[in-house]
């Protein structure tokens, strides 16, 4: 019998988040997920796996707070928060506008702050919980033409480590999972040549799959991971070495 049962996944309609929704549902967790706009994928997932979808642009604080109220109404409370929603921006930093910068930071970093702030007080009251943040190998290494993205993911590392110290005494663990190049919509702009070059740079000689990431997230959510906190763990086939 699992101790922690209710999970909220941000960015759950596609890619890594959709795989998390599927795997948490199949593992018997009560699962809610937030997505921004893809109604078709969200309702398909909800119907197939029995997850509860919430449509919400998490880059705005008031939306995130409303979404959390809805999640609490549906699930009662949240035991495991997975901050996964994210977008990328590929281009020179000097070509980036203020609004592109703000949109990326608000989606990738501030959304984690908004959701965590709204959910953690309940976890503290219950003296248990898990926060799992999805960072990126680029937050460790930095990527040319993805400066804002790399900065947002580097911030997820600091956010996770500091929050782990703050919440450890309340029985809550916080970890950061850092995927390498995973085959999802986010990377659909790559040409075949780009993909070959990325595979050549990956010691295990393949792109990652969403399932590779989900396996670690499921473990970190499990009762077996209660002594693991403040860790930033790569799922990147050795890409970041
Ligand atoms: P996808 O583009 O496939 O999925 C992103 C999800 O985030 C979608 O469900 C999307 O909603 C949701 N989302 C985007 N913006 C918002 C917003 N403002 N409010 C609410 N939800 C939002 O990306 P991936 O699955 O590839 O990425 C998931 C996470 O993993 C991201 O944080 C990404 O940075 C990280 N990551 C990905 C890597 C990769 O190679 N793919 C590598 C390293 C890290 P909707 O479906 O409605 O658009």
Structure in words:
The protein is α/β, with parallel strands linked by helices. It is built from 8 helices and 7 strands. The chain has a 7-stranded parallel sheet, with helices on both faces. Helix 4 packs parallel to helix 6. The longest helix has 29 residues, at 98-126. The chain is globular. The mean pLDDT is 97. NADPH dihydro-nicotinamide-adenine-dinucleotide phosphate binds at residues 11-17, 34-38, 56-59, 84-87, 107, 134, 136, 179, 181-182, 184-187.
Classification by helices and strands: alpha/beta
What percentage of the residues does DSSP assign to strands (E)? 15-25%
Tell me the span between the first and last alpha carbons.
Answer: 38 Å
Question: Going across the major beta sheet, what is the strand order?
Answer: 3-2-1-4-5-6-7
Which ligands are bound? NADPH dihydro-nicotinamide-adenine-dinucleotide phosphate
Order of helices and strands: EHEHEHEHEHHEHHE
Q: Could you describe the largest sheet, including whether it forms a barrel?
A: 7 strands, parallel
Query: Mean pLDDT, rounded to whole units?
Result: 97
User: C-alpha Rg, in Å?
Assistant: 17 Å
Question: How many DSSP-defined strands?
Answer: 7
Low-confidence runs (pLDDT<50, min 5 residues)? none
Number of helices: 8
Helix content: 40-55%
Shape, per Cα inertia axes: globular
